[in-house]
Amino acid sequence: MTWLDLPADHPFGVAHLPYGAYAPPGDPRTRIGVRVGDAVLDLVGAAVQLEPRLVPMVEGDNLDRLLAAGPVTWAATRGAVTSWLTDPACRPVVEANLTELSAVRLELPFTVADYVDFYSSEHHARNLGRILRPGQPELPPNWLHLPVGYHGRAGTVVVSGTDVVRPSGQRRTPDGDVVFGPTTRLDIEAEVGYVVGMPSELGRPVPLESFDEHVFGVCLVNDWSARDIQGWEYQPLGPFLGKSFATSVSPWITPLAALSEAWVAPPPRDPQPLPYLDDAGAPPYGLDLRLEVRLNGHVVATPPFAQMYWTAAQQLAHLTVNGASLRTGDLFASGTVSGPERDERGSFVELSWNGSEPIVLPDGGTRTFLEDGDEVVITATAPGPDGAVVGLGEVRGRIVPAR
Ligand SMILES: O=C(O)/C=C/C(=O)CC(=O)CC(=O)O
Ligand SMILES: [Ca+2]
Ligand SMILES: [Mg+2]
């Protein structure tokens, strides 16, 4: 029970408590906030008075120190915040450190170290194979054996709300000419991101069972993609400028501890994965998240996350199996989330089938790819305790014209 006046089913209730970085009104210094309902708790401000031993781990302008402090501190911090919100004696201090969410400026919650993007939705991978490589097998020969991925550009990961400038680049026209200019096929990719807290040692692989020793929590990702730039440049080394211009993340990092009701068994795998990827004896690392994609306020897709073929634990094991080390702040994304149904596809290249089947919007407009001024918002929910819902917040971005 909490003394807070929050409906029991609030998506940001006391069972959730995600972390972000924010600046309160009239103060440019950013700090860690915990989202409580539609308010933000100044974590260091409250800790100074209620739990001073936590202060060194929660000081600073973002989550970097807390991420690096490891799972024992993560649990202690979450336990402390939960007790403050449930113990009436703490109420005056908590209330003095709460600010309305609408009044604060949200910042990138952590310093992004390395950014990796996977490709782990079988429905998405098959759709892209059919669209982009007709006449060839839907899946590349490695796809069912390992979680395919690539290293992206950490420095262009931006917080939700940041405008996205339409990128320019080379593309090949249908006539075969190579031209330069603003992309004409600007797309989204609705994804789930995992934030690494505890680093690992160079040379030592991280087994999939060690997932929750290293991963702090989850956010939403929009991996903006320029399909024409991508299609011309990507062979043989993979995505480059077609995706590196911006990747947006949601401002609130949901700790794994808030997702205890959301774990589900992943789909059956055939062929059986090699031992380092075999999760048959491990806890279920699938997550029952439901995503929603809105274009200019209209829901255009509801991708289901529970059916992802490769889980984040397998992705982490694969990412490190060659001895590559993890750094605090590493971000790895699931890959575009698409389900089997037409309205469950997490990208416009799939929703419009490469532009051949425009989406019709309720206002009568149509879309294939994104136009200047379009705004995309991706949200998601997870099951919480006692029938409640955990909200993953939103990742929002608006397209502004090429420069
Ligand atoms: O199949 C392709 O050629 C391209 C695939 C993608 O662009 C998807 C990607 O970035 C990975 C993912 O989000 O699933
Ligand atoms: Ca992607
Ligand atoms: Mg990107």
Automatic annotation (TrEMBL):
The keyword Chloroplast does not apply. It is an enzyme of class 3 (hydrolase). Residues 16-109 form the Fumarylacetoacetase N-terminal domain. Pathway: Amino-acid degradation; L-phenylalanine degradation; acetoacetate and fumarate from L-phenylalanine: step 6/6. Pfam families: FAA_hydrolase, FAA_hydrolase_N. Residues 116-399 form the Fumarylacetoacetase-like C-terminal domain. One of its GO terms (molecular function) is fumarylacetoacetase activity. Its cofactor is Mg(2+); Ca(2+). Keywords: Calcium, Hydrolase, Magnesium, Metal-binding, Phenylalanine catabolism, Tyrosine catabolism. Signal peptide: none annotated. Its EC number is 3.7.1.2. Mg(2+) binds at residues 223, 243, 247. Substrate binds at residues 119, 133, 230, 234, 336. Coiled coil: none annotated. NCBIfam families: fum_ac_acetase. This is fumarylacetoacetase. It comes from Nocardioides antri.
